[in-house]
C-alpha cells in the first residue's frame, strides 16, 4: 500500500513517559521497550498476527507496580489507532477471530464504531504470570477500547494455563483488528447507514 496509515503518540504524566508509533499497513515488526517484559511479549504477538508495525518506548513507575504503564500504553495505542483511521472511512469496520492456544480458546469480536465499550468474560486464571498481574490485561483492553473508539468483546470460555489464555487473547486481537482495519474499496465513507460514526 503506497500511503501507509501511520501515527505517532506521546504521553507524559507524573507516572509514565511514553512514545508510541503505529503503522496499520505493516509487516509485523515490533520494537518494544515498555519496561514490562510480559507486555512486550503480548504486544509482539499482537503486532505479528495483525501485520502491524509497532514501536513503543515507555518509562513508568514500575517500582510501585505495572498498572500505570500497562494502562497508559493502552491509552496511547488506542489514540494511535484512532489517528490512523481518522473518520473510520473505507474500512471493513468489523473484525472477529476465534483462536486456540493449546487448551485455551479466545474469541475477540470488535467494531470500530466510535462507540467505546469493553465486554471481558475470561475464564478465571492465575493472578500472576511471572511478576505480571494478569488482571492488568483487562485494564489495557479497557483503555484501548475507550481511546480507540472501539466496541470490544473478549471471551475465553475455557483454558487452564494463564500464559496460554493471555497469548490467545492478544493474537486474536491482532487478527480481528487487522480484519476490521483492512480497506474496503466498496465503501466510500464510514460503513454506516447514518453516514458517519
Describe the fold and architecture.
This protein has 197 residues and is of the alpha+beta class. The chain has a single domain (6-181), classed as 2-Layer Sandwich (Ribosomal Protein S5, domain 2). The chain contains four helices and ten strands; from the N terminus they run βββαβαβββββαβα. The strands form three sheets. A four-stranded mixed beta sheet has the order 1-2-4-3, with helices on one face. It has a four-stranded mixed beta sheet with strand order 5-6-10-7, with helices on one face. The protein has a two-stranded antiparallel ribbon with strand order 8-9. Helix 1 (37-50) packs parallel to helix 4 and helix 2 (67-85) packs parallel to helix 3 (136-148). The two termini are 25 Å apart. The mean pLDDT is 94.
CATH second-level architecture: 2-Layer Sandwich
Mean pLDDT: 94
Low-pLDDT windows of residues = none
What summary fits the major beta sheet? 4 strands, mixed
- Secondary structure: helix percent: 25-40%
E-strand count: 10
CATH superfamily: Imidazole glycerol phosphate dehydratase, domain 1
Distance between the termini: 25 Å
What structural class is derived from the secondary structure elements? alpha+beta
CATH topology: Ribosomal Protein S5, domain 2
**Whole-number total of structural domains:** 1
| Strand fraction | 25-35%
Shape: globular
N-to-C order of helices and strands: EEEHEHEEEEEHEH
CA radius of gyration is 16 Å
Order of neighbouring strands in the sheet with most strands: 1-2-4-3
What would CATH call the class? Alpha Beta
Number of H/I helices: 4
Amino acid at each position: 500500500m503506497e500511503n501507509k496509515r501511520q501515527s505517532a503518540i506521546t504521553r507524559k504524566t507524573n507516572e509514565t513517559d511514553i512514545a508510541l508509533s503505529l503503522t496499520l499497513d505493516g509487516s509485523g515488526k515490533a520494537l518494544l521497550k515498555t519496561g514490562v517484559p510480559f507486555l512486550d511479549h503480548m504486544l509482539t504477538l499482537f503486532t505479528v498476527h495483525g501485520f502491524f508495525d509497532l514501536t513503543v518506548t515507555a518509562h513508568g513507575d514500575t517500582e510501585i507496580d505495572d498498572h500505570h504503564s500497562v494502562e497508559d500504553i493502552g491509552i496511547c495505542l488506542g489514540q494511535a489507532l484512532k489517528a490512523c483511521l481518522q473518520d473510520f472511512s473505507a474500512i471493513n469496520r468489523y473484525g472477529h477471530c476465534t483462536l486456540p492456544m493449546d487448551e485455551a480458546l479466545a474469541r475477540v469480536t470488535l467494531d470500530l464504531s466510535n462507540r467505546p465499550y469493553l465486554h471481558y468474560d475470561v475464564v478465571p486464571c492465575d493472578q500472576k504470570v511471572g511478576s505480571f498481574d494478569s488482571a492488568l490485561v483487562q485494564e489495557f483492553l479497557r483503555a484501548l477500547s475507550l481511546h480507540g473508539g472501539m466496541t470490544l468483546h473478549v471471551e475465553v470460555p475455557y483454558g487452564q494455563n494463564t500464559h496460554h489464555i493471555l497469548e490467545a487473547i492478544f493474537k486474536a486481537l491482532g487478527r480481528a483488528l487487522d480484519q476490521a482495519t483492512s480497506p474496503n474499496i466498496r465503501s466510500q465513507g464510514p460503513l454506516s447507514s447514518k453516514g458517519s460514526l
